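The passage that follows is intended for readers who have already worked through the single-chain material. We present the inputs for a multi-component assembly, then the predicted structure in tokenized form, and finally a short commentary. You are encouraged to pause after the input and sketch how you expect the pieces to fit together before reading on.
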Amino acid sequence: MQEFINELASRQSFLSVTTLTILAMVLSAVVLTVFAAVLALVGVYAERKVSAHMQNRLGPMYVGWHGVVQTFADAIKLLLKEDIVPAAADKKLHLLAPVIVFAATLAAFAVLPFGQNIVASDLNVGVLYVIAISSFVVVGIILAGWASNNKWSLLGAMRSAAQVVSFEVPATLAVLAAIMTVGSMNLGAIVSYQVGGFHKWLVWQFFPFNFIAFIIYFVASLAEVNRAPFDIPEAESEIVAGFHTEYSGMKWAMFFLAEYANMFLVGVIGATLFLGGWSSPFGNFLNSGPFQIFWIVAKAAFLIFVQMWLRWTLPRVRVDQLMYVCWKVLLPFGFVAIVGVGVYMIL
Amino acid sequence: MLFDFATILVFLIFGGLFVVGNVILSRIIQTRNPHPGKISTYECGELPVGQSWIQFNIRFYVIALVFLIFEVEIVFLFPWAEVFKNLGAFALVEMMIFVFILLVGLAYVWAKGDLEWDKPQAVPDPKLIPSYKILSEELAS
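Having made your guess, compare it with the prediction:
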């Protein structure tokens, strides 16, 4: 990207390198925000349709062809809806919470590789950065629960913090297995290692240890984005809506946007680390420019579909079962995966 | 390198501005009609009882401590994992010793029962609770 900017600056004298660099940064931020917003609209529609068909219903059918414009109508409704801030709430923190949640999610988008050179920020510590910034989201959630001054919100926020923080440990261990195999934390380098067909994907390397790591990452990521069966922070049957009980209108929409963006984020990270990222599953066939974007989005969409599928298949777990899964199942298996990969590489 | 982190800063700022901008836009075009009932804290339709800014029981305090230990350990594992390919068997053995010590710690916490969400506790004898004593003495006199 830097080379391109330098060349562009040398071709004309109207804009300097600094101006062009800042312009490129802002442009990439705008593009990815719009992308995240569109993603949330499509994601909500897909979730409604998937859940409806799994329960033998039709889902939204009236607004547009098969209800495709339903989510747009909902977005307009949310924009026009009154922003109710409870009198007892801390008004500044009440606004700050969705800001932190969305900004942290969007910042993680910056390092996602959508193609060979299609990445906003090619960090050499990419994986570590994604883990660090996505655990920032929990600060926003705690803030939302505390600022609302509502008992349900506080309970939901506490649960969410416990859950996100706990599942970060097995998720990071699973990621370490992938880093060990490749020897780099750069997301682009991890994908380059897997280019050349689906048999080169990291899931199949050092079988079954990287496969175990992939399963651990997927389960832990479900918990990190508060998705079913680990959606106890938003368990509507016991604590109303969890940390966003007191949110309505646009602020609530921002939490929702961040949630769907986060689902996509873990989908892309899972696909990048273990399923070959933007590389085509058929070697060099259809592996150029725009197809790379197609492959990464398709792989992420598949993982999101599995998330939805699990949501409408499994019942919600209890808090103690959640802690059991994390500390007594995923964590020991995470260590098994790391030791297994290490021993395999030495042999 | 600096360019990469500057991009992230721009993303953070832009993400924040996007939320604030949307909320302001919504404020401009929405109808606002606050009502004491509407802006009261939601508690299933009842009037809220007390505040929720109280001292609450952090159930997972020990889990938070265990998390801290494991997270620090994982931070040490990251650079090791990146250069592991070039270091070979010696690095593996050394890291296994490090990980083993932590696993012993995990086993200890597990055996102590601190990984349970609801740690079973011995029910105290009601006769030892001061208020019970006072009450029973009052009743006796």
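Commentary: The mean pLDDT of chain B is 78. The two ends of chain B are 81 Å apart (CA to CA). How closely did your sketch match?
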